[in-house]
UniProtKB/TrEMBL annotation:
<dbReference type="GO" id="GO:0006412">
    <property type="term" value="P:translation"/>
</dbReference>
<keyword id="KW-0689">Ribosomal protein</keyword>
<keyword id="KW-0687">Ribonucleoprotein</keyword>
<protein>
    <submittedName>
        <fullName>60S ribosomal protein L34</fullName>
    </submittedName>
</protein>
<dbReference type="GO" id="GO:0005840">
    <property type="term" value="C:ribosome"/>
</dbReference>
<dbReference type="GO" id="GO:1990904">
    <property type="term" value="C:ribonucleoprotein complex"/>
</dbReference>
<dbReference type="InterPro" id="IPR038562">
    <property type="entry name" value="Ribosomal_eL34_C_sf"/>
</dbReference>
<dbReference type="GO" id="GO:0003735">
    <property type="term" value="F:structural constituent of ribosome"/>
</dbReference>
<dbReference type="InterPro" id="IPR008195">
    <property type="entry name" value="Ribosomal_eL34"/>
</dbReference>
<dbReference type="Pfam" id="PF01199">
    <property type="entry name" value="Ribosomal_L34e"/>
</dbReference>
<comment type="similarity">
    <text>Belongs to the eukaryotic ribosomal protein eL34 family.</text>
</comment>
Length: 107
């Protein structure tokens, strides 16, 4: 190989380390978005997920954001969205109560 840059090829184990043959990089599996960890999905190269090597039910997880976010991350998103909506409702109720108090004090 003429390319001398670091990482341009992987070396074989010690017994053949003199010959720097290019090797296909392995896969570390599908990630969980911003959360550390891996899915329990077979570790393949991206193109192999697209090809029909695996049936669809082995490539994804059956839930919202299946195969992209973990169950805990999805739960966290749902709870966060629910709490934000609750806050909006509470603000609206407090605003209405304040308006009623103002009206009662004027009359």
């Amino acid at each position: 190989m003429t390319n001398k840059q670091i990482g341009s090829f992987r070396r074989l184990p010690a017994f053949s380390s003199i010959i720097g043959l290019p090797l296909r990089p392995g896969s570390s599996g599908k990630g969980l978005g911003w959360v550390y960890g891996r899915f329990q999905i077979p570790h393949l190269r991206p193109a192999e997920y697209k090809r029909s090597r695996l049936p669809r039910n082995r490539r994804t997880v059956n839930r919202a954001y299946g195969g992209v976010l973990s169950g805990g991350a999805v739960r966290e998103r749902i709870i966060r969205a629910f709490l934000v909506e609750e806050q909006k409702i509470v603000k609206k109720v407090l605003k209405i109560q304040k308006a009623k108090e103002k009206q009662a004090s004027k009359s």
